[in-house]
Amino acid sequence: MLFEGGGSPMSDPNQRIVITGIGLTSPNGNSLAEFRANLLAGKSGVSNYEIRYIGETLAGVCNFDPLRYQKRKDVRRGTRAGSIAIYCANEAVQQSGLSWPDVPKNRVGVFIGITEHGNVETENEIFEISKFNYDTSVWSHHHNPRTVANSPAGEVTLSLGITGPHLCIGAACAAGNAGFIQGLQMLRLGEVDLAIAGGVSESIHTFGIFAGFKSQGALATNPEPTRASRPFDLDRNGIVVAEGGGLLTLERLPDALRRGARIYGEIVGHAMNSDATDFVLPDPTRQAECMRLALQRAGIGPESIDLVSSHATATEQGDIEESQAIHSVFGDRMSLAINNTKSFIGHAMGAAGALELLGNLPAFDDHFAHATINLDQPDPRCALPQIVANTPRKMDRVEYILNNSFGMLGINSAVIVKRYSGDQEE
User: How confident is the model at residue 425 (pLDDT cuts 50, 70, 90)?
Assistant: First the structure.
């Protein structure tokens, strides 16, 4: 069932997709409650970090317990991205209130966005064989299953006994949103009855990510780690690489209502498009088009959005271009709040868009837009008067949140979530 260009599926209850469970790990929290509390308190999760060949740098490092849902041998055999995904998926299922033994596992799908996967394992194996004069006979026989692109999603199916479809969506740093969109589409198509969807990242464990950004002059430095990630700030000097994960349980509205599930929000609009202009430089025109298409599919205008969760990574041109795109869509309407989560945790790559949306969902209940921290001298070229700087903003209402997530090779995504009020469900 397609809704091309515009139109809305909202008239069919079975096409309405809602969020019923949330699992996450981030550099400043391992649950939604902890994550949200630290966002409102202005607590950063960026710290000093050391990695092979790069030495001392900065990163957003997660501190969850992988053994909560895995045995030691499974952690050794699998991947860091897999452990993150397993932790988040199990947390989301538990929080959803589903009676997991009674769920038909062949009707569950796992859809996880990733920026890259396999670099960590290959780098580690090359380092190991370098100790043996590059004798490949010591190469791990676990390498191939660890590095296939579907590994994090596949590891979730092994953990939870899921026999429905699973896949990873390679969408650069738009991947978290892409995971949500894939889950939503599979539910609307009737391919699954429950989707575990979102994004994960293990990027801090590959020195190549740091080396690549460093060679671009895009790797953040700061004597105070918690002040290093500075989106929209005149003194920003690059990206803080982070790891993390955010996964949701998504269900059709009638299914969620039937079992009395708590509903955290309803995904009412989404869009993805491509710049087709450059490998790394963004195009604000295409980004604006992506946001407008998401609004059109949601059947609302820009004036309905209360909170925009920005993608800005603290790179000079990227922040400027996104600011232009947001302004072209929303203008100077001061009832709008714009914030940025990367200022707290750094750039979690494939998990970025997922964590940024999840950290803002509680605004439907508490009516606070969390701040963008480290915004001491706003760059005049990023002139967005609605940016929430350094202190959370109390909102009169939060009905709609728009989550931006953009990536290299010009991939753009936007997801719109509406507060569920229970007044139009059937």
Answer: very low
205 is catalytic: no
Average pLDDT over the chain reads 96
Q: Is 290 a known active-site residue? A: no
pLDDT tens digits, 71-88:
999 999 999 999 999 999
- Model confidence at 349: pLDDT above 90: yes
What's the number of domains the chain is made of?
2
Specify the higher pLDDT residue, 5 or 268.
268
The catalytic position among 311, 327, 370, 382 is: 311
Verify that 204 and 297 share a domain, yes or no.
no
pLDDT of residue 10: 62
Rounded CA separation 195/247 (Å): 10
Domain boundary among 223, 258, 293: 258
CATH number for the domain harbouring residue 347: 3.40.47.10
147 is in which domain, residue-wise?
9-258
Task: Confirm whether 270 is a catalytic residue.
Answer: no
Asked if residue 264 belongs to a domain, the reply is no
| CB 166 within 8 Å of CB 204 | no
Determine which one of 166, 205, 327, 347 is catalytic.
347
What is the spatial distance between Cα 157 and Cα 149, in angstroms, rounded to a whole number? 14
Segment 274-327, tens digit of pLDDT: 999 999 999 999 999 999 999 999 999 999 999 999 999 999 999 999 999 999
Catalytic residue among 88, 173, 290, 382: 173
Is this model's pTM higher than 0.85 or not?
yes
